[in-house]
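TA notes. Do not distribute before section.
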Amino acid sequence: MVRPTSKQKLFNGRDHSWIEFNRRVLEEAEDPSNPLLERVKFLAITASNLDEYVEIRQAGLLQRIEDGYREPGYDGLRPDESLAVLTAAIHAFVDAQYHCWNQRLLPELRKQGIRLLDWEELGDEARSYAQGYFQREVDPLLTPVAIDPAHPFPRVLNKALCLALLLKRKRRSSGPPVLGVVTVPRALPRFVRLPSADGAFDYLLLQDLIAQHLAGMYRGYELLSRAAFRLTRNSNLYIEEEEARSLLETIRVELHNRRKGDAVRLEIESGAGPEIVERLRTNFELEENQLFRSDGPVNLSRLLFFYSDVQRPDLKYPPFTPRPFNLSRRSANIFDELRQRDLLFHHPYDSYDPVVEFIQKGAQDPAVVSIKQTLYRTSSDSPIFQALIEAAATREATLVVELMARFDEASNIRWARSMEDAGVQVFHGVVGLKTHCKLSLLVRRDEDGVTRRYCHLGTGNYNPVTARFYTDLSLLTADPQITERVHMVFNYLTAHAEIDDYRPLLVAPLTMAESFLGLICRETEHARAGRPAHIVAKMNALLEPSVIKALYTASQAGVQIDLIIRGLSILRPGVKGLSENIRVRSIVGRFLEHSRIFHFANGGDDEIYLGSADWMPRNLFERCEVVFPVRDAAVKARLHDEILPAYLADTVKARLQQPDGSYIRAGKILRNVRPFSSQDFLMQLAEGKTSLAAIPIPVPRSAAKGAIGKKRAAG
């Protein structure tokens, strides 16, 4: 058995994998087969992704370097080496973003009557409107600053758009120019909609409108040059536990301190004068490679505005209505239904309403005596939030809320306090571990006098808004073993009360890693014994070395392994002698693939698990996570014969990972196969416009091929 000795040969780089993921999103912006406004939206998403990556990952690398870390990462690179490669890749990616905007999207938008205009292009009516808008809405929010000994450089907020000005006093014949700074108001849209006689959608950049009025703000100065810029600061959130301070207070203090993070990136208009650039770079103590010149609007994530403001349905995906859920005739309510069978919902193809209604019933049904709930992220007007408050008035209501959900800490603190005020028992989980599991548990005294537990377990957040464009899975069940163990998980979250065995659940950080390794090892033994051995795992990311090494061993034993990984993967698939039986595909399309599914052929006795955890160190060891088995035969059949085969057959939105970590569209590699889009198929299936027979049968890979697709092929 071949076992490479070099760490670099075992894994690809994490940062390289992330850049490749964002490139796949950028491909969707470049793809002319996608509707135009959807392409603009994809470009905005790449910019938002990049923002988060720079202020978290790149900032983290800078911190590690400053702290003296020299230990190589997965790819064998030290932090300083990794940072150099990452920074160069980000510069190239930013160039590609602006090329997409300037050469592909902007001309197409103009053809469709959606125009981003310069001030010089405005007619009299548009200029008059813009002037009035400035006086009414913009000017009251502006605070011009001129930097001199009496006025130090203002505190520039993280990711706030600003105008930098080079100014010279008119009454002084000598003396160096001074720098001025005007912050563009965050409360206003970045694009000002203008009146248009021909029905076009005409817009002016808010920063350009402000620029036309700078002379009035800086009377007594001559304006030499100006440039829009945006500063990104370190947003890593570190918490030091102190006995004298609650976790909630710790998070609140860290939120305040976050604004004081070190600068890690400066974006500035490509036409900015060298003196402005150098003064800003020096002030923020940045290296030259931390400076990014924008050949267009600074902060492309704001382009998302066009998607919502331009009312052109013909330039967006056709509307899709999720499949509704109806109780069977013999059931009076959801609890009757769950006593007969488990229910699986595949969002957004299936409506999210049953999940909301399940929790609402828990708040309203007088037979329900207790409701327990985890919340990681949810919407600001969530009906789940209201249901918990309603429940607290008449029954035991318990909430485990995650305060450290990145970038949602402030809203989650507000939620926690509102819940406590309403009488909900609020807990913050196990100190030092994020509560990422998705659980809702109801205790009900049923009509037959028996007290039973009912629960929802999911792969995604309790957020009805994101459930419309995230693919996730929800399981509603009254299975006594599962619900009893969910009860024990809540005891762990509220009292840190551990038990030795959570089976049939896999619970992180207690049993999950060991259990997954055991399942992979079992598959390896099946292959060695000549029994059916196949692993299909769908997740967001794969970074845990111990799991990857176990997959390599399984591949060498003959296990067929299909991984569907939307984002990061440092595994090297298809390497002879190491991973030649492993295939990795990433699907990026209309919906964000967010569900986690784990299928093990198990010698012919298939097992399928769902859950909230990826195969990443943070999910397996640093979070409270739950992965749960699918036991109901009909639910298992749906996953086995519909959902997983559809993803494995995708040749339109799927990209296949190469050994070096790059990705190629499946349609370019798999010749002579008809185009098949898993997401399009699943929408059509939900609408009753197609059937399972439309899923292409996978081409057999070897004699050890797994069971996925076999039943359909035999039928």
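Switch to the second chain here.
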Amino acid sequence: MIKLLKTLKVYKLQIVFIILLVFLQSLADLYLPRLMANIIDNGVVKGDINYIIDIGKLMLLVTVGGVICSVFASYFSAKVSSGFGRNTRNKVFTHVENFSLQEFDKIGTASLITRTTNDITQVQNVINMILRMMISAPLMAIGGIIMAVNQDKELSLVLVFVLPILAALIFFVSRKGIPYFNAMQVKLDKLNQVVREQLTGIRVIRSFNRDDYEINRFNTANLDLTDTALKVNRIMAFLMPGMMLIMNIAIVAIVWFGSIRIDNMSMQVGDLMAFIQYAMQIMMSLVMVSFMFVIVPRGAVSAARINEVLEIKPIIKDNELNKESTNDNGVVEFKNVTFSYPGAEKPALNNISFVAKPGETTAIIGGTGSGKTTLINLIPRFYDVSSGNVFVDGIDIREQKQDTLRQKIAYVPQKALLFSGSITENIKYGKETATDEEIQQAAKIAQAYEFISEFDGNFSSKLSQGATNISGGQKQRLSIARAIVRHAKIYLFDDSFSALDYKTDGNLRSALKLELANSTVIIVAQRVSTVMNADQIIVLDNGVIVGSGTHKELMDTCEVYREIVSSQLLKEELA
């Protein structure tokens, strides 16, 4: 947590001001009991009304000053803590944006969401408490002890017995409760993951009638978190009643022994009242410390989880000596590329070599799990190869800036992902400066213009989160339009025609052939009809290239390709 608190240095002036305000407020709180004792002993007992009025005015002035300091201290504490939360969220989000897919896979989306929201909020609350209580409590405790001893040394012996008991209680309860806070955050991650999966997979859940199973799954995660929360709260709930009991016993002891000293003429009534106030301030400062023992451990756990994200160094980063190609044609070359996912027993791709040239369409086909998507993900450098090289325009992509590399690429993912907003905004995501004419042209090429025109708002029509208000085929066509409007040198289509009917698929491929005549096009597909007219077809089987050539050449030379073709032609004939 200390590392994370270093980011507060930008607020050092505000923090110094808060400390000053808290110090002045504490002085006011410590001075008031002394004034009260003077009124009782020198005003009430002697019947001096003028003295009572004068000291009363001074008490009122001190009280107003303390209130003003408290209000401003609270205001600036909230401002500093909320600013810290804002800056930390921005820092975490910016850092996560630089992660490769490998880092995302390592932590998990659900956990990243929890850390960016709940964990940062926990730390933000702790900072707010620290700026108020962590500064105020020691001042009140030390000042109260000094004032109490100064008021009556003999009566202060009561505090010598009480304070160690209170400290021992706080230590015992905190030691028992702290281990549960880490467990709570982990279980909150699990609950968040379950909820996220259920919300995103609601169609699958309902189609397979698995509502009861998912409800039980949610209840299991929810009850697990609840049980842990109840355990820690039961432990912490023991703290306050225990402290109040000790405090009340202490007050009774102070009144008992104080009355004896008053009876012996060793102490005045006002002094006893002031001593009781100082004792309460000392013990209340310990209560504040106990609050800190409750909230700081949980904040420390959250801070550690945030630091864990911030300390992850992205595996994929720009080379210090970045090279830039002299040509910008979009030639893609794989040379003896082997790639393994972290922890995998065997490579997903093994010794892959081929060249994709501008003006040509390179198609990649193969069975499920053959490595098609993995191969295409290596080109934008979502992952780094285990061995071998991937070249774009003659330069290894690891020696190019990621921004420069990806500026050449237009990518259509396997899962068509659209954002909430208008259709225009989603297409312009591929090119911010795209004109209305470019957007409409891209939509026409992607065979999306017709269904967009049927919407009431046309291109201004709003898409819901996840674009759930349009069909799968419409999502794919908008994703393709988003890539087309980019006017890139390299186009990557990762099985992005699967939701299209054969007629739309054929029209789209014909339009793409004309539009992308000077670009390098790489298509991953399951359908033979999508790839059979490609200039080069690469057949993958278990991560290995088992065939390469045109449709006609592969029909003569590649058994795996013939099997794929025969199985799909049979299905088409039956249809």
